[in-house]
Amino acid sequence: MPELPEVETVRCGLDAALTNATIHKITLRRKNLRIPFPENFARILTGRTILQVRRRAKYLLFTLDSDDILIAHLGMTGRFSVCHPALIAGSPSLREMPQHVRHDSNLHDHVLIELKDGRTAVYNDARRFGLMTLAKKNTLAKHPLLCDLGPEPLDKDFSAGYLKRELMKRSGPVKSVVMDQKLVVGVGNIYASEALFLAGIDPRKPAKKAADKADGLHAAIRKVLNDAIASGGSSLRDFLHVSGESGYFQHRFNVYDRKGNPCFSCQTPIRSTRLAGRSTFFCEHCQR
Q1: What burial letters (b/e) apply to 126-161, b meaning 16+ CB within 10 Å?
Q2: Is 282 helix (H, G, I), strand (E, B) or coil?
Q3: Which of 8, 37, 44, 200 has the fewest C-beta atoms under 10 angstroms from its C-beta?
Q4: Could you state, in order of their start, the residue ranges of all structural domains in the chain?
């Protein structure tokens, strides 16, 4: 599933491509994704101008020139692309066009957002675990999808002191606690594993016993997320940028998905276990 850096990368691409674009037509090729589309979804969006694309946790928030916010979530395989109508399947010059500026229509293109300037934003989702819905601007923070979320890991509200206080309250494995979206949003399985390695913390350790390393863990979380965003996210399975290019942060993983390979720091083989149903990778020598 795309994690915060992947969603932030998509947000940046969409914000650059769609800000100040006006929606001409919405085509829904099915009645639902993970949840049904709201009633009159296409009608409400038609004619609206996109003012900005923001992010809250792993949700994309399209700010419109109305009272509505379009909320989108990529699920496991969702992705957006923005293409020109001339660059469609069947065009004589299609094969000569770069992949990132063309679009080959397929059965998994579920939402087509045609813009007045002639471009089309396409939402493709093979497994249909993503979603699109609407919220009013003045009640956005109270929306059921957003109301219980913790602070953003790169914002000032997520401080080392805050993290230490929260860890001291918890007795579960520190990795599972760090992945709790009510504590902090967007620290998923990959980046939790990587941050705990940088902080030298065994992911199985009870959170309250790891509280004394909160400063290092706080810094590590920010570092791995910032590095991943700078690198364009991780291209695991179906993740692609809006441009069609893949992220490449996976080439820098220290422990994630490296079971049996030597630790880059001490040469000890990387171990793997499962915590809360998720694969967890760590170095038992470097992480205590």
Answers
A1: bebebbbbbbeeeebeebebbeebbbbbeeeebeee
A2: strand
A3: 200
A4: 4-142, 160-282
Top-tier CATH class for 160-282: mainly alpha
Give the H/E segment covering residue 153: none
Question: How many CB atoms sit inside 10 A of residue 172's CB?
Answer: 13
Tokens of 162: 């805050």
Class of domain 4-142: alpha beta
Q: Which two tokens stand for residue 168?
A: 């001291």
Q: What is the pLDDT of residues 55-96, one digit of tens each?
A: 999 999 999 999 999 999 999 999 998 887 655 444 444 334
Considering just the CA atoms, what is the radius of gyration of the chain in Å?
21
Its pTM stands at 0.87
37/134 Cα distance (integer angstroms): 9
Mention every residue, 6+ apart, whose C-beta is less than 8 A from residue 205. Answer: 173, 174, 288
Cα–Cα dist 194/190, whole Å: 6
DSSP state of 85: T
Residue type, 88: I
Q: How many residues does the chain have?
A: 288
